[in-house]
Amino acid sequence: MPHDHLSRRHMLGGLLSAAAAGVVVPGGAALSWADTPRSGGMLRLGSNENPVGLGPAARAAFLAAADEANRYPGRSWQGLHSALTSLHGIDGSQIHVTPGSGELLRTGPSRSLVVAAPTFEAPARTASETGAAVLAVPVTAEGRLDLDAMLAKSAGAGLVYLCNPNNPTGGSVPGAAVDDFVVRLKAVAPDARILIDEAYFDYADEAGYATAIPLAVADPRVIVTRTFSKVFGMAGLRVGYAIGQPGTLSALSERGSDGTMTGASLAAAAAALGDTAHLAAERDRNRTLRRQTREKFEAAGYRVLPSAANFLMIDIGRDAGQFGWACRQQRIAIARPFPPLSTFMRLTIGTEAEMAEAMPVLLSLLQAPASARVETLGLDLAGQGC
Fold this sequence. Notes:
Layout: H1 8-19, E1 23-24, E2 43-44, H2 56-64, H3 74-88, E3 95-98, E4 106-107, E5 113-117, H4 122-129, E6 134-138, H5 147-152, E7 159-163, H6 175-188, E8 193-197, H7 213-218, E9 222-227, E10 240-243, H8 246-254, H9 263-274, H10 276-299, E11 303-304, E12 311-315, H11 320-329, E13 332-333, E14 344-348, H12 352-367, H13 370-377, H14 381-384
Helix pairs in contact: 1-4, 2-9, 3-9, 10-12, 11-13
């Protein structure tokens, strides 16, 4: 089996390593807001998982792969690799199949990382732990990447990270704007890498949005990452991939450790790519429920940011952390807070039944008097630092 499997998180760290001196971060990942212990009956609307799960073709392939459990997954890896190269019309050397987003980041202390604020947190968190400068640029009022402001902070940077559509805000920026950013970045940081994270690509439906894969194929500074964790419903199977020029991917691989993927997860991913009917249905389901959920919050007087993903970011006008704990008392898990948008709740779009159950409870909690909300929390606010 080829030794070139980099996770999306590990790829982020590898890019920083390529721009600076590589340092391995010890220890495991921090417990996330969505991972706190809970008992049965919780509506899980906080981790941007696909609530439907595997499509029919992926499920059948996953189960069938049990007969090959005694074999190393080289053949399954090759099958997925071939399917991806065919899908994107690229050479096999321009793609790396990766084991999801679970590995540790690598970073270095001498070159800066430019990110949005807020955005996917792992790159900035690990860069900070190792001493790298993190230059965080606030998103726009609509929750989109402020590319002009990010460019203004990028002089001498080692890596610029663009999550498009952006997690946790949901908005996207047009493909033409990303193209222009990459061109202009060369003037202020000629050797900086640009990582474009397209985890939510399959949900994106805003005007002008486009993949950056052509950029990654043409420019050695650019790399694009994708995941099977979202529309494909495979968050627990840990499969993703990265696209870039061979030299870029090879340099990153040298700084990384091997990941592990099973034959079952690889087979499921390959089958999922071909199940176009299921993917279309999932996009339609998400689009419809996302619109309906938006309309309900807006009708209740709450501002909702534009979203091209499988979640919404709603300004609830109060501390999102405290509200999250109140929701948990009612058996609903929403996302952790995302500073500096401390009054915004990120809500994953669940199934139709889940949203029908959750929405009355969420709106009731939001409309309760402040004193009732604090009582519902059942927390020692002074002791919790809230």
